[in-house]
Specification:
Blueprint: E1 29-30, H1 42-56, H2 68-78, E2 87-90, H3 93-104, E3 110-114, H4 120-127, E4 131-135, H5 145-155, E5 159-163, H6 175-183, E6 188-192, E7 216-221, E8 234-238, H7 240-247, H8 257-268, H9 270-273, H10 277-293, E9 297-298, E10 305-309, H11 314-323, E11 326-327, E12 337-340, H12 344-355
Parallel strand pairs: 1-11, 3-4, 3-5, 5-6, 6-7
Antiparallel strand pairs: 2-8, 7-8, 9-10, 10-12
Helix pairs in contact: 1-8, 2-8, 3-4, 5-6
The chain binds 4'-deoxy-4'-aminopyridoxal-5'-phosphate.
């Protein structure tokens, strides 16, 4: 006899919820989850393997629960005076964000973000038993400081997520919005900089705002620019007191010795790991220009993906591309689809497949 969720003593607040579910289909051109489609460079892969081999010899012991060497290494990479005590890490920035919510949200509390934004924020929030409140953006998905501050003041959240630049729209976020939101709440303000490395190099990170803002958290990931999605490594910088709060909710030894060793080795080669970023940005910009030439409406993007409008039937176009072996993402925004910038060949394959599908209104 098969049992369904309804037959189980599931938490009432989880009934009817849908899990994260981007399709994982084995298609030749997979541009749907904003991965870095360039593999880890050979010389770095060799060094990572050597480090893993050493770590494996001691895998009978629990790993360093405080992952100090890795935190030091992230502090070095981030710069801006960030210290080891200010750094935290976990299995992907999803787990980092979950730790923040476990410590600062939870039953009877509220988290807030400007929709459309990263689809995991509401799921992670509800997972801790907290309520998710969605704010609004302008029609072009930007947010102004005044509007942001008044929406946040009204919602009175315990945690605010500012995705900068934003997924799934690619939209940049001004530091003035972050400052205004911080001043409009007593809650924790998380700036999710998962895609920061793809922004113009001269643009300032929210890391520059950390001083004197003990409720500000800047999260990053190795999944995108570092081409390390499969290793599951995310991290954040914040006041050391915030890091102390996260220690209360993490599982002991949550970062395996193998994960720590792999991430440390990859970080030793940060410039090589990041060398594809400029190439990916070039493909992103080529994609935007070609989409426009094809009559679509790409939104400005500071990430490794492009959201484009002007699609008459997103479901049908998504399927037509799928049938040609190209996987992109229907993020549920009317008239829009989202595509990750791939290698030059992958990007060309996507653009050619799209050109062969007539899906403009
Ligand atoms: N934040 C944003 C905005 C993302 O788009 C993603 C991944 N798509 C994540 C966080 C999580 O990434 P990871 O858990 O792989 O670090």
């Amino acid at each position: 006899m098969s049992v369904s969720l309804d037959d189980l003593p599931l938490r009432d607040d989880l009934r009817g919820k849908i899990p994260y579910g981007a399709p994982q289909a084995a298609l030749p051109i997979a541009l749907n989850v904003n991965e870095n489609t360039h593999p880890v460079p050979e010389e770095v892969a060799d060094d990572i393997l050597d480090s893993l081999a050493l770590a494996l010899r001691e895998v009978n012991r629990y790993p360093d629960r405080e992952f100090v060497a890795l935190r030091e290494s992230f502090a070095d990479y981030l710069g801006h005076g960030v210290t080891t005590e200010q750094v935290w890490a976990a299995n992907g920035s999803n787990e980092v964000l979950q730790h923040v919510l476990q410590a600062f949200a939870g039953p009877g509390r509220r988290a807030f973000g400007f929709a459309p934004t990263y689809s995991m924020y509401p799921l992670l929030t509800n997972g801790t038993g907290a309520e998710w409140v969605a704010g609004r953006r302008e029609p072009d998905f930007t947010i102004t400081p005044d509007d942001a501050a008044s929406q946040v003041a009204e919602a009175e959240p315990d945690v605010v997520f500012l995705c900068a630049p934003n997924n799934p729209t690619g939209t940049p976020l001004g530091l003035d919005v972050i400052e205004a939101v911080y001043d409009a709440t007593q809650g924790i303000v998380v700036v999710d900089e998962a895609y920061q490395e793809f922004a113009p190099h001269e643009e300032r990170s929210a890391l520059t705002l950390l001083a004197d803002r003990p409720r500000l958290v800047v999260s990053r990931t190795m999944s995108k620019a570092f081409a390390f999605a499969g290793a599951r490594v995310g991290y954040l910088a914040a006041d050391p007191a915030v890091v102390d709060a996260l220690r209360l909710v993490r599982l002991p030894y949550h970062l395996s010795a193998l994960t720590q060793a792999a991430a440390l080795a990859a970080l030793r080669h940060a410039p090589v790991m990041l060398r594809m970023v400029d190439e990916i940005v070039a493909q992103r910009d080529r994609m935007s220009a070609t989409l426009e030439a094809l009559g679509y409406e790409p939104f400005e993007s500071w990430t490794n993906f492009v959201l484009f409008g002007g699609v008459e039937d997103p479901g049908a176009t998504w399927q037509a591309l799928y049938d040609q072996g190209v996987l992109i993402r229907d993020v549920g925004l009317p008239g829009c689809l989202r595509v990750t910038a791939g290698t030059e060949e992958e990007t060309t394959a996507f653009l050619e497949a799209l050109a062969s599908v007539d899906s403009r209104p």
